[in-house]
Amino acid sequence: MLVTAVKHKKNRLPQPESATLEKGSALQSALPSSVASQIVVESASAPERIQDYVERLRRGKSFLNLVLVHVATGINQHRLRQLRSQVRGDSELINLYNETEKIGALQKEAIARLEKLFKSVLKQAPFWKQTAYWITTRLDQWALEARMPADCSIPGVLSVEADPALPEEEAWQESIVISACAFYTASEWLRHLDLSAFSIEDIEKLLGIRSPDALATDPALFQEREIERVATGYPILTGAQALINNQWEDGEYPYWKKLVGEGFIQHNIVRQSPSNQQIELVPGKAAWEIIQQFGPEAAYVLLIFSSYATDSEKPWEQQIRLKGTDLIRLFGWDKRTDITLGQKLKKIGNLVELVCSLSVLISNINVGANRYNVARGAMWLLEELEYSGQLALTVDAKQPSALSYEAGDPDELYIKVRPGSWTEKFLNGRDVSGKTALCQYGYLAKSTLQINPYRQRLASKLAIFLTIMSRIRQDGRYEVGTLLERLEPKELMTIVEQSKQRRNALITQWDNALLTLHELGWQIEFDNTTYPECIRPEWGLANEPEQLRTRPRNWLTLWLKAIVTIKPTVLIQEKLGSVLGSNAQSHSNLPTALDDSLGRSPNLTGAELAIALNAKGWSKAKLAKDLGVDRSLITRWIKGERVIQPKHHAQIQVLLEL
């Protein structure tokens, strides 16, 4: 196989044109010794056979692809050595299995980049002729001696698929020889590649491997706690309602609208173009097709985005980075076995796109000043949805010698969104004039996100709406009809008035929804005056009824006017009480009034922990003992298999003086 001497400029990866072919005697001396010693002149007796084999190798691509995979593996080994040197030689920091998978899943673009690197070599006819000669010589030797040539026996070497057009034994022998040739060729190419001047980032770009920083995500919600802060300003409230209550109005551009004071908030459907950060309104039928996909699960995603935006000092400047698998666990989908991981991730991606299709138009009218302001923009700017998964090496049945890559189901989804400009007014501690802004915060319970909207649709809607309203309406008193008007389509009331079956179904759904919230810790009380026992759910009765209860004839009107008090869990009420009390004293809605225990600081990475341990001179056993945890947990942290929880994060910072 032909050797290349690759020249490069400092701190730049070798360019395709920089790969050069050694001339004259250097050509032969650069080959593996097992090859060079046997190649004196090309066999004059079978030039046609050599040329035919050259054409077959160049046309099939399987040999070249295998060479490039070996080259990529070698380059990655250099990268791993650099990584080890950065973490002071702790071999446990490198998960070799995962790293091997990265190379095994090389993208077509990465293979193409490597092929360009050796472009000048691949253009040279001598390279292909001597490759064909090496292979045919070994095949002839095998046939003559009835045993595998010694230099073709390489344990564990990657191999090409056998040619189904040949007899089975002959095809197997050819596969072994071609694979050995690819291995030796790659070894020689690597020997002449000097990568010492290149950074890990440059090498990762060459291989198409994303660096850890590029895939860094925000810490997952609800780590060792059951509640999180969440923004509850009007755009969040109306945005959630627009996603769950189907009260959209028809028009050239369908819209959802709510009057607020002397102004209004309106939502439309928009299409985003992440490449140029442009948005456009989606008209008519196309918009309705999107609206029909809305539901509680999309509202869950909205609340998650809002929770992340809550902790940022300037959320409009913050990029929110999430992993799809974190959301799967958050929704409780990790326990589902009816759909695959890939299908779950695609469903998460679709929900994100639905939420990001929602625009917000805020109109403020000042009659006294004879002025108005209207601002429209996307609620959430979708910057990237990146699916990640394995590529499978496949063979075209029509061209068995041609290897190709086929994408399998994704095993991860990386989400990048940014809050819209509306957050400057509604999620800003103070506006540009220094006045108290409209930032308002409540608390989101983890259990809310795990209510199954397919089995408990009304319960999920209630939990979403009341999560936001719990800060706005502290007494928690609502008329049943008012809640239904906020959560259900407008035509529902007309339907239930006309259909006894629908009336009975609705009150049953309502009772079950309240029971679900009650079981999750929400506090529910029925007003004795307006909510008589004859229309209460059985679980809400003080005493078990002595006889079968029947609803009065006018129970629908009575029920819709009935008052129920629904408050969140005791823990959330305590937090809300402390926050509201603090706000009353400071006359401010600044997020700093919230309990510090709910703040999320960036997680310490495994590599950073290893470096800190080395700097301190501590072993993993020492740290485990001081933390009161098993040593294996420290190892998992360092390997990145487990996230360091906030409690341990704080202890580690103190112990290691970070």
TrEMBL record:
Q: Which GO terms describe its molecular function?
A: DNA binding
Name the InterPro entries on file: Cro/C1-type_HTH (IPR001387), Lambda_DNA-bd_dom_sf (IPR010982)
Please report a single Pfam family linked to this protein.
Answer: HTH_3
SUPFAM superfamilies reported in the protein's UniProt record: lambda repressor-like DNA-binding domains
Q: Where is the HTH cro/C1-type domain?
A: 609-644
Q: Which PROSITE patterns match?
A: HTH_CROC1
From the UniProt annotation, give the residues forming the signal peptide.
none
Q: What is this protein called?
A: Helix-turn-helix domain-containing protein
Per the UniProt record, the source organism is Myxacorys almedinensis A
